[in-house]
Amino acid sequence: MNKKKVITIFGASGCGNVGDDLIGVTLKEYLEKKIDNVEVVLTQQHKREYIMASDIVIIGGGGLIYDYVMENVDNYIDIILRAKHLGIPTYMLGMGVQHVFSVEAKKKYEDAFKNLCMIETRGERDSKIIRDDFHYKGRLTTGSDIVFLLKDSVRLKKEHHDKPKILLSLADWKLGNDTNNKIDPKLEEDYKAYREYLRKELPKIKDDFDFIIVNQAVEDLEFSKELVELTGGRYEAFETIEDSKRLLDVYSEADAVLTGRYHGMIAAILTRKPVLAVSFKGHKQHYLAKELFPSLVDQTITVGDFVRERKLDSLCSLINSDKFGTSSELRKAYKKAKEIDLAVRDIELNLRFITSPESKQEEK
Known about the structure:
Layout (H helix, E strand, L loop, with lengths): L4 E7 L6 H17 L3 E7 L11 E10 L4 H16 L4 E8 L5 H11 L4 E4 L2 H9 L7 E3 L22 E5 L18 H18 L4 E5 L6 H11 L2 E3 L10 H6 L3 E4 L2 H9 L4 E5 L4 H9 L7 E3 H6 L6 H5 L7 H11 L2 H16 L1 H7 L1
Parallel strand pairs: 1-2, 1-3, 3-4, 4-5, 5-6, 7-8, 7-10, 8-9, 10-11, 11-12
Helix pairs in contact: 2-3
């Protein structure tokens, strides 16, 4: 048997966000299932030593394209350029764009992306930015979040509980922290009011519900622990990359979900749990609803409106609703996620060339 070829995925798995971990695990297992005789290695973006041992390099997925930390720009571009120097085919899969403001970063992305075999994105907004801002002329396909590939493997649960179970997975934006400037500081007043509203109102309803507090990112730890104290709820966290696969099982226990996390919203949709997604204007949750789940547009709300409309008072109506996206919307999201197969077929062709006797003879 031919020696297994190596596909290396560079991304944000293992960096403290369970959504990024689940993307990486899902992509790794999908490639292993679809492509014969390969070893798929999942690693972090700074581990350059893995490039030379690779036959294919993949960057992805998730919102890896941003410049509020310039080091991030240089990290991924360095992977692309090193792989290009070694003649290794390189792909970006499941890619999302957060924000790229500087002319310098846009130019760096534009120059580096010319060396890619293909880019597959998680949405129309991401594809538009890559086309328009980075002037990308190569092969570009629009998919959806890689985690939607798990649609058919989700175990749906509908259980009766003496008290309704509410799952909270809320993000801590660390406003005022100079190391994190991806959130507009003008939102600080609304965010402080939101946190105070939770502190005041959650203890009043703690006996009406059983709460599950899910910590989905390392920066949310302090906030999640506070939510446990406010609600008396059960705490759930995910210790390893592999453990991220348990996220959907935890969500399936709930009767309703209140989340500030993008993959919290996706987990609720996949497990068919009514969801209210609270964030800030222009967050990727809003784009997910707008592009793929229009029935949930009204379920994506800013922290300011969450307080002004006293949304905690309406948890009971959320429980008894069908606010988890329609079946046709979910089928569409899954179909879009399968657009990744265009890249898979291209990877297979490249691997075939690498392993062909003709190729080996040319190398000699």
